[in-house]
Amino acid sequence: MPKTIITCAVTGAIHTPTMSDALPVTPDSIAEQAIAAAEAGAAILHLHARNPENGAPSVAPEDFELFLPRIKQATNAIVNITTGGSPTMTVEQRIPAALRYSPEMCSINMGSLNFALHPLADRYDDWKEEWEEGYLRGSEANIFRNTFADIRMVAERLGGDPHNAKFEHECYDVGHLYNLKFCLDRGMFKAPIFLQFVMGVLGGISAEIDNLLFMKRTADKLFGDQYQWSVIGAGSQQMKLAAVAAQLGGHVRVGLEDSLYIARGELAESNAQQVAKVRQILELQGNDIASPDEARDILGLKGGDRVNF
Ligand code: KMH
Ligand code: ZN
Question: Is the whole-model pTM more than 0.85?
Answer without folding.
Answer: yes
